[in-house]
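Feature request disguised as a bug: please show the residue count (446) next to (apollo) hypothetical protein in the output. Example input:
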Amino acid sequence: MSCGEHQQITLENSVNGKLPTGCHIQAFADDVLLIAHAHDKNELEVITNQALSEIVQWGDKVKLSFSPEKTQAIAFTPKAKPTWGIQPENISIIYHQVIEPIITYAAGVWGHAAKKKSCKRLLEKTQRLFALKAIRGFRTVSTNAALALSQFMPLDLKVTEINQIENTRSSGITQYLPDDITLEKPTPIQNLLHPALRVKIVPDSLQTSEEDPNNFTQPINIYTDGNSMSSIQSICNRSNTHPIVANIHKNIKKIREDGTVDITWVKGHAGSAGNEAADAAAKSAANLKKNFDYTKFPISFVKAKIKKDNLYKWQNRYHSAPQGKHTKELLPDLFSIKRLWQTTKIDFKLTQILTGHGFHREYLYRFKISNTDTCPCNNHSVQNIDHLLKSCPRFGAQRMEHELHCQMLKVSPYNIQELVTKEGAIISFVKYASYIIDKLKSFNSI
Ligand SMILES: [Zn+2]
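Example output, currently without the count:
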């Protein structure tokens, strides 16, 4: 759940005492974590609903709403315990929603220190544990591979990212733009029209309007087309503090004292007279070569730029690090990993294939668990992932099935970047890989 940062302490103090037994809330920055514990599903539902209603009532009192789209529920059950407890996707949610925000808190102030080796190491150590849990990887998997596979951006980069964004916010300038283009800031309250005087703008019909735009019956009708739906919504939101929106409100107020304006969205280039005239006027204005009227940049612009740069840095780091060689051969870039998780779920068996850290003999021998690295199929081939996937006769039947499937779908059977392009192919690969890992312990007589 998300709420205002300064409300967190008040929320904890006022609500915790009123919650049903088994419930506790913890607020951090603008996130709220509600923990509910019960003996069975029904009881859990009842107490969680009671707790949520307390929180919402508190929110109503302080005029604060919680956003359902940003609210996520995770269930922990005793049944899940024997198999690593929390599901890996839940580890990811907890990491992104709770752990990362706590670690990066106030990075605007201390973030520059993340470049120091000692700080970087400490961040990496903390993050590594979560990444390994999230991918269900062996403890020997390198941090480079674990972070890439879990899609957890290295914390020092994340901290630097937040630090850069906060610096832009406070200095008002960015390295991405000339210094005379400054940060767009919300209009200060004293410069906004008094709420009672703010113009009421009625979006006539925000849906596609087919009505005749040539019929000007209202005092002021504004017809607009194209991608301006979000602009209309911003204008219609009377509490919007964007400088352009505030200016529009002032201008409309000037020209119409009773302040009712209708805005209708119309289909562009549909031949309506007003729309064509507006297009022509816009084109001729574009040819005037006059200076820009508005030279401010929104913080979202800088955020997107910094995020892109950091992703590039991470990609370089992933690529150039000596660790994670096996993973990189299968998944050479972060984008291909992202694609993979869009098509299939992370899992203990697939992770063994992707990291090369698992129950196969090459690994067991390397870590002195087995006294040989050869495969029982012929006692001379090294039993590595490549051998198991591509040539070990023990899995010949399943391999043939997978290869035929891929042949039919016209994708190469062991190229993950290609496999993810066809849903059936990646499913077949995961099934085949899981079969191998399932049988491996008994095959190796462990
Ligand atoms: Zn073999």
